[in-house]
Amino acid sequence: MNNKIIGIQAIDFQWQVENPFLFCAHHKDFYPRGNKEQGVAVSLKGRDIHNDFSRKDGFSMYHGDNVPGFPVHPHRGFETVTIVLDGVVDHFDSKGAHGRYAKGDVQWLTTGAGCQHSEMFPLVNEDKENPAELFQIWVNLPKKDKFVNPDYKMMWAEDIPLLEAVNKEGKKATVKVIAGNMKGIKSLEPCNNSWAKDRNNNVGIYLIHMEPNSSISLDAVSESLIRNLYFYQGEGNINVDGYNIKPSNRVKLSGNDEIEIVNEDKESYILILEGEPILEPVAQYGPFVMNTREEIQEAIGDYQETEFGGWPWEKDDPVHDKNQGRIAYYPDGSIEKR
User: Rounded CA gap, 67 and 148, in Å?
Assistant: First the structure.
């Protein structure tokens, strides 16, 4: 190791993350064709329905029983960032917001004082398979923002800034700038109360696709920056500041040094999560993230008493019509279509 590479660790389904991030999961499922209800049109025998993370036959149902996904569940005190690389996601929440987003889109949700939501993966194709791939990333909120009103924002694929780095050999690395600023390319704005909203917090979420033999560098940012590189998919190795890294590894990096990444002769896929830490205690119990155990107990009690405003939808796992396009309905009545 050297001063630039702090540690290397294998990654699995749920990845190890660091402040200000709380959680990161990479879902990649090869769903079969769908049925009339946009559910799975094959037998689900042998699965632990409502808790299926088996990847049996190449896919999981998660907490769904017909449509895969995550039926209604509560959150308080943090944000979810959902990045869809393939497939379709239907969002419904207790504030009345709902929508359908798909390949390349990103949803940013500040849960704040508390909300319920569902995230289902409808299988819209009855005549062919329904591959799906997405990331869900949790970003903490500081104490001052734990009780802000929930907020919801779509970042449509067409609007997400891209950085292209072409080396002397003409090989290209492409970066989707979900959050942050890379080499002068700034992301779209997140929700208003996000830790990422203040650019001084240096929150970066970068998805990097590297062509064979391409290269890219990460800029020096600050001594306090927490930076992790996840080499989540590839058939060859990458070289990070002189060290060969195999796929399915996390590399913790210095935030105050320029880091050179050179790809070998196969395509490689990388996620970078970085940011200034929130220098406060963290107390977490499942979907609630606060600063103290007493606040966790309060969150549980509030949810039991109020259900964070209740659930306005007829089903716990609602989905839109099969033919619905990409759309976002906001609580104030405004609508965005793509």
Answer: 32
**How far apart are alpha carbons 209 and 257 in whole angstroms?**
22
Q: What's at 82, amino acid-wise?
A: T
List beta partners, residue 131.
30
Q: Are 311 and 94 in contact (CB under 8 A)?
A: yes
Lowest mean pLDDT among 11-25, 132-146, 297-311: 11-25
Neighbours of 149 (CB within 10 A): 13
Distance CA 95, CA 311 (A): 8
pLDDT, averaged across the chain: 97
Residues, the chain, total? 338
Q: Is the pLDDT confidence value at 1 over 70? A: no
User: What's the pLDDT score for residue 14?
Assistant: 73
pTM score over 0.90: yes
Domains of the chain: 1-15+160-282 (2.60.120.10), 21-44+55-159 (2.60.120.10)
